[in-house]
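User: Quick sanity check before I run a bigger batch. Here is a single chain. Can you write out its predicted 3D structure?
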Amino acid sequence: MRTFSYRTASTSLKLAITGLLLLAVVGLGVAALQVYVRTGMTPTGALLHYRGNEATLQYPKSFAEMVSITHVHAFTMPMVAFVLAAAFVATNAREWLKRLVVIALFTGMVLELGVPWLVRYGPAWSVHLFPLAGVLLFGGLVASVGLPLYEMWLSPAKRPLITVAHPLRTSEAHRQHRRAS
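Assistant: Done. Predicted structure follows.
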């Protein structure tokens, strides 16, 4: 049985996967932009966003708002993590690296879902878990998009294992063929 390889995949499959991966980058990029606009990507900004600020009349996020935000993200983020992980697992990377990227993606997504709750209702230091989530997600994103795209479009093609001119033979058939020649 032949194993899957991005190098030998059909062009239509490469185009579909490329489109999906690039749109995932755009989607996560817009999510990062939204975080930047709301919090400035600073611990203080995140605390003010979730806990409110009396000086600017910004109210703390209510329990209902937190549930609403989490509800939407609890469905979409695992699917994005799965798609990115599946794209990376299909590469020729070593197994330990595949495991590392999958763990990074899903851990980053879990933190993105849970840390807002910690920031809102837990200790203020928990806001410092946001950068960890960002590093895990960004690293997982770069790996799960970069390596598949490299293997699809940039890696040098290897010679095929089976060709029409010289099909693989069993060792006995090969010996008989050599004797007859």
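The helical segments are 11-39, 43-51, 63-89, 95-121, 129-154, 171-180.

User: Great, the batch can go ahead then.
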